[in-house]
Structure formats: C-alpha cells, structure tokens
Design goal:
By secondary structure, the chain is an alpha+beta fold. 14% of the residues lie in helices and 23% in strands. Among the domains are: 98 residues, no CATH class; 94 residues, no CATH class. Strand 9 and strand 10 form a beta hairpin. The longest helix has 15 residues. Bound molecules: iron/sulfur cluster.
Length: 361
Amino acid sequence: MTEHTKTDGLPGMDMPVVAEAGNAFGKAPPRNERMSTAKVECNACPVLCQISDGRTGACDRYANKEGVLVRVDPVVLLRRQVEADAPALVPFNRAPDEAAAAGTDVAAPDWNGDLLHADEVFVTGVGSSTTYPDYKPAPFIVASKAKGVDMVTVVTEGIFSYCSFKVKIDTDRFLGSEQANVRYRGEVVGHVTTAEYGSQMLSLGGVHHLTGGSKKEGRMTAELMQLLGNKKAVECTIDGGSTLVIQAGKAPIVNGVEEQRMRVGCGSAAVGIFARQFAGVADEVVVVDDHITGVLTEHQAGRCLDMSPSGIQMLGRKSTPGRYFQVANPGNGWGGTDIADPLAIIEAGKRAWPAPACACS
Ligand code: SF4
C-alpha cells in the first residue's frame, strides 16, 4: 500500500511516524493483496479507494499522481506557516518511544499549543481538512473554555455525502406543501422546506438521499446537485404540487410558465414597502397573500400616511390592524393563493366600497 506522502498543504514534509498495523491511527494493510501495482490505495477514510494513475478517489480529494498519493486541493494554511520566519506549529502527539525514534519531543516545549488565542475567541468551526471524524484524527482540534465549559472543536471536511442545497424559488405560484417530496427523474431528492422571506424553499440532496436510499436515488441526487451547482437547468416535480424547471440566476419555470415577477414578501410587507406608491392612487389597496394579507388604510403604513380607513371587512383571522391570516389557501390565483375573484375575500354583505376605487394585487 502506498501511504500518504504529504500531509495537507505540506509538500515535501516528512511523513508522520505511523504505528504498525493494528493501531487505530496507523497504517492499515491493503484490502486486496492482488491490487494492481499501478494503483495506490488511499486510507484517509474507510472507503479505501484504489486509485489508478491520473485518477482521483471517490471524493475527488486525493489522487494518484505517477504512483504517489497526493492531495488535490491542499489546505495551504500550514504551508504558509512552514514558510513563515517563525512558524507556529503544533506537532502531532506521539508516543514517547516514537518521538524518540523520530528525534523529536512529544510536544513542543516552547509553545502551549494555543493556536487561536482560545481564551480570546469562541471557536465554533474553522476551515476544514481531511476526512470526517473517523479512525484518523482531524488535523485541527481546538480546545477552548467558554464560561467554564470545556469546548473541543474538531474541524473536518464535509465530503460529498453530506452536501446539500437550499434552493430559493422566487415565485408567487404555489409549488407544493411544506415537507412534500421533490423528485428528479422519478427519484426523491429532497423536500419543500420552510418558506423564507417571501420565497419558497427547497432542501435538496443530503446524506439520506445521496447514500441512504437506493443507488438510483443517490445517483439522481448527485446528478441534480452537479447540474444545479454548475448553473444548469433541471426539471423537478413536487408531490402534490408543481413541476419546476430551476436554474441558478434564471427565473423559475412553474408548470411550463416562466415566472415574470417575484414575491417581495407577504401582503403586509408589500403594503409597508409600497405604501407611498399606493397612496393617492387608490382609496384602498388589498395585497392578497396566502400568509398575511395586507389592507393599506388599516395597516400602520396607511396610518403613517394619514389615510382614512376604508372600512372594508376582510375574511380570515385578523392579526393586527391591516394584517390578516388565513384569508386564502396557497394556489395559483391572486397573490399565490387559490383566489380567482379578489372580491371573494371580503366579507359578504360588506362589499360596497365606501370609497369609489379599490385596487387588489
Ligand atoms: S479520502 Fe477520498 S480518496 Fe481517500 S479513501 Fe476516502 S473517498 Fe477514497
């Protein structure tokens, strides 16, 4: 087996001394003695890729370069330190006999190992490198104390099986219920998640779809993420909802219709943002929305502009003045609701406008 000849970002650095096979952190025997000699086996994680010359392992992080296992995207923080005039590095802890054999101390005597002034900063996560927590330790392990509590931050690299996308869809049209499955080429690759700031959100990818289901599900999930990540268009369907074509930087196409406008926020937000533009154009403005429907003259924004309440009574549940919940359900009608006739959300018997003009949006 070919051992790693470089630690991350340290070309030319001597290999750390490794223990004999059997030690949890040591060199493992190759899985297959008949492995082609043109291949090298990577043991950075338990996948143990056997990599041909000129190819990378399954994670694209390690490669076989002319028979030598190399890191593809090295983290250069350590390299910079090594090249600095006074490099501050913590040697890996070694058993005393190994350290003696290597001619080094177990720990550097002139440094307490404080990499990041841990008494001054609260470390929750920094950088990344090598595999996820496994039989090899992460190269950066930071100990700190916060309010008397010992903290240990182990920094590793999130390899592909933990990758996921959160996709923001700017449209008023109803895409699907929260938690509904999102499918790509028939396979479930994610779900509709909580809407944020007026946009519907999809959570795509992640470990359960990449590696937790069938091989086809994993492949379709990876393909979808690869395409989206490379700004390509992909078509998805949402169970009980819409068919979508999504592409980074492009308007979504929902059920075959390219979106022309985006939802800036709920009806209350729209009333608040555009109150000055609405004022003077209409005596009342109702912004229909499946979350909060806004009624301008009753809303605080209208009050600030000295608008007189129009007196209309909305269906739904009043939250605060000019803001109504549950006026309508999500849909493809007015304001992303199932409303086809905007007058239908005004309480029956109170549809006579006290003022001559009213606008709905
Ligand atoms: S770290 Fe990457 S290349 Fe090495 S064994 Fe694991 S998946 Fe394969």
